[in-house]
Amino acid sequence: MTYCVALKLNEGMVFASDSRTNAGLDQVSSFKKMRNFFNRGDRAIIILSSGNLSVTQNAINLLEQRSSQQEIRNIWNVKSMFDVATLLGECLREVRDRESVFLSQSNIDSSVNFIVGGQIKNEPMRLFLVYAEGNFIEVSEENPFFQIGETKYGKPIIDRVISPKTPINDAVKCILVSFDSTMRSNLSVGFPIDLVCYQNNSLDLTFQHITQNDDYFAQISRCWGEGLRSVFASLPNPHWLSNNPPPF
To answer: Hey, what domains does the chain have and what are their CATH numbers?
Structure first.
């Protein structure tokens, strides 16, 4: 399992993914779940993946393989992020069709999801969620983020904090709190965390690799925990318990 999240804000975009793929008492594996296609001044594209590792890696590898074939539509020559999402969906369908018999015979879960977003020159920023079938949807103003993988523990803080007007600095803090909450509740999500920030119309990317020894993440985790305990302690007591004590 993994956890990936991407936000589309007025100011820019933020992407983050963990690297945990398998967890147990005696086995922990790590693989990157983030891939970038970046040509400064022309396009900045980030892809996050969750689900069956073989399917996701093969789909991305196929996308990369075709990127060197200039005579066909590829991720380096298409003119819109919509086209990029279409190419990724086509690669995903091709891989699933090719491996479907083996996966079904072996009872292997082949479900996958991708988040793909970024900006191509002369086009606005866009963010898409690509489903296992290869079809996709685009983020909305009302819901300016996508999550894939182990989403339930990190979603409440994002729901409460994130809107299109959120500054990137606040968005990064929110994402790190989201990861901290997820990792505390689920061992299948873990370090390192890959994080990318993108300023609108910059066609440039800022990368950050966060390990378990990262001082800033530790500070965020500590402050968030202390803040939660402080707010919890300040909540009013249930009046019906103090006014109506139980008869026993």
So the answer is: 3-235 (3.60.20.10)
